[in-house]
Specification:
Elements: H1 3-8, H2 19-29, H3 41-54, E1 62-70, E2 91-99, E3 111-114, E4 124-130, E5 137-147, E6 153-160, E7 199-200, E8 212-215, H4 218-224, H5 240-252, H6 274-285, H7 288-305, E9 306-308, E10 315-317, H8 332-335, H9 340-350, H10 353-375, H11 385-401, H12 405-423, E11 432-433, H13 434-437, E12 447-448, H14 451-468, H15 472-486, H16 516-519, H17 521-530, H18 534-548, H19 555-572
């Protein structure tokens, strides 16, 4: 939030057995408001034509539908062919990055694919990342061939987790010692043949921007925890106003979201991690159009906002001085522009090696810069909560893709500093000099805290907790939630003080209630860690106000509302009678 707006403050402003059904909901939800739940006639035709025959094929232990959507294209030039004959659809290389929940899969060679008729599809695969705790596969890249006409859709079936019926002696915990021979992508399978196990191919390259997109049901993405806990849009009965408001705002934004460019001073396009916010939107809807939009934003960020070192081992935002080296602390403005969460989303959901390169290069720059950030005239990471937050998010993303001991040590060092920071005060806030951070927002301190920056830090802590299980995170998050609910809230109980502890401005009004949607995920995280349902009661009440006051007129504010509220819904989905408790562990 910029200083001018802070001063103005206007007064108003899975079960897996259910996944086949989720495919129907996925198709019905594409491009529709959450309240519209009927199945469109053309979608019903797809299900009737492709769904029933697929069920006749031999079923593996676990299955999930994979929706293929071919991009629309202009009508081809007239060609000589028999009257009434449709032109053949060319075969395209399709790639899909499939995320898996912790413990669900340990060997990609136990993945199989069937087309819409139930026929086995030759498949190549490789792991993209593993869960550091337990070592199971977090995401796998699948590549295969498919022929769809422009605008056509088909429902394939992905089987995994059990040996091929042709090799009943193999078990998931004893993978085959030799991979089957590599199939050609042009091979034409016979209907209902035994599914062929995937061929492990470590040199496999993705085709994330090819003419056919492959997406999974939002319930699958939610259960996989690929980007933290989620609740599919169609299951959100509690906050329909958020779903309609966030979509409508994006469609009506003037100028359009993607009309914004790079700026190092004014509100800018990717603040609050635009790629991450747009991927959160995709994961909760699961449709090809939202996938394409999130993917485009991730590519745009890398092409326009990152500067790599000559050897491409380090990357910083283009707003940093060109002569920067790790011996000098990165500027505060640059720390908030290092978008680790969005880039790790892009890699885990597309397999694009450019996304992995960006995560590792940003992470390494921050790892090498850690001594300068914390050991100079001041601890830059403790000047404001968001400085620590953005660095922790990116280092968590780095460790998620490259779980080496030295990276874990650097990440734990940040956690140590965060725990000690909170313990140095009695309030539960991460107390710091408010005037030092921004004199235009607080002319005279003394020490205080920022609720919205604290929310970013809690989000980072939950990423870290998902990777490490550090038990200290529970108490840190619970104390921060107590502080927000008891001391940082406005006297009318409708919002949070923009700053807490400022002597020259109490910020005791609800003019910043649009920030509620960024902050209430702290209460969801507290519930996830403590199972105390009062945190959801507090969060829901403040979320109701936040939805009503949602300010989403430009990318910064849209990202602010979208980047974490889906996680809040994922946390609260574990309330008794809602969703399974397996959705409660966040991930970067």
């Amino acid at each position: 939030m910029d200083a001018q707006r802070a001063k103005a403050r206007p007064a108003a402003r899975r079960p897996l057995a259910a996944l086949l059904l989720a495919a129907l909901l996925l198709l019905a939800s594409c491009g529709r408001a959450p309240a519209a739940r009927r199945v469109e006639p053309r979608v019903r035709a797809v299900l009737e034509a492709h769904g029933a025959p697929a069920l006749q094929a031999p079923l593996a232990a676990e299955s999930v539908p994979l929706l293929l959507v071919a991009d629309a294209a202009p009508a081809p030039a007239p060609a000589k062919r028999p009257p009434g004959a449709a032109p053949p659809a060319p075969e395209a290389v399709v790639s899909a990055a499939v995320p898996f929940a912790p413990g669900a899969l340990r060997d990609v060679r136990f993945i199989r694919l069937r087309d819409a008729r139930g026929a086995a599809v030759p498949l190549r695969a490789k792991p993209l990342a593993v869960w550091p705790r337990g070592g199971s596969i977090r995401s796998a890249l699948l590549v295969f061939g498919a022929a769809l006409a422009p605008g056509e859709r088909a429902i394939y079936t992905l089987d995994f987790g059990a040996p091929s019926p042709s090799s009943p002696s193999q078990r998931a915990d004893h993978p085959p010692t030799q991979a089957p021979p590599a199939p050609r992508l042009t091979q034409v399978p016979q209907p209902f043949q035994v599914p062929r196990a995937a061929v492990l191919d470590e040199a496999l390259l993705p085709n994330p921007d090819g003419p056919i997109a492959a997406v999974l049901p939002p319930s699958w993405y939610a259960a996989s925890l690929v980007s933290g806990p989620q609740l599919p849009v169609m299951d959100d009965r509690r906050f329909p106003g958020f779903e309609a408001g966030i979509e409508g705002a994006l469609a009506r934004m003037t100028p359009a979201y993607d009309a914004y460019g790079v700026t190092c001073s004014a509100p800018y396009r990717t603040y609050y991690d635009g790629p991450h916010a747009l991927y959160q939107r995709f994961l909760r809807n699961g449709d090809a159009a939202r996938y394409r939009r999130a993917r485009a934003e991730a590519v745009w960020y890398r092409q326009h906002e990152l500067r790599f070192s000559p050897d491409r081992r380090l990357a910083v935002h283009v707003c940093e001085r060109e002569d920067w080296t790790p011996a000098a602390p990165l500027s505060w403005q640059v720390l908030r522009r290092m978008l680790g969460q969005g880039m790790v989303d892009d890699y885990l959901l597309t397999g694009d090696p450019a996304a992995r390169e960006a995560v590792l290069a940003m992470g390494e720059a921050l790892r090498q810069n850690q001594a300068a950030l914390t050991g100079g005239r001041e601890d830059v990471l403790r000047v404001t909560e968001r400085n620590m937050a953005w660095v922790m998010m990116t280092l968590s993303s780095y460790y998620a893709l490259d779980p080496r001991p030295e990276l874990l040590s650097a990440l734990r060092g940040l956690a140590d500093r965060t725990v000690a920071w909170q313990q140095q005060g009695a309030s539960g806030a991460f107390e710091h000099d408010l005037t030092r951070a921004d004199p235009s927002e607080c002319e005279r301190g003394p020490r205080g805290g920022s609720p919205f920056m604290t929310a970013l830090l809690v989000d980072a802590l939950m990423d870290y907790h998902a990777l490490t299980g550090d038990p200290r995170v529970r108490d840190v998050v619970a104390r921060a939630a107590d502080w927000l609910a008891e001391r940082a809230i406005t006297s009318d109980g409708r919002a949070f003080r923009y700053l807490w502890g400022c002597e020259t401005d109490a910020y005791d009004d609800s003019g910043t209630a649009d920030l509620n949607l960024l902050i209430v995920p702290v209460f969801g995280a507290a519930y996830a860690l403590t199972r105390d349902p009062r945190w959801i009661e507090v969060g829901d009440a403040l979320a109701d106000v936040g939805v009503k006051e949602m300010l989403v007129k430009e990318p910064k504010h849209w990202n602010q509302a979208m980047r974490a509220f889906g996680r809040y819904l994922g946390y609260r989905a574990a309330l008794p009678g809602a969703a399974s408790e397996s959705q409660l562990s966040a991930g970067p």
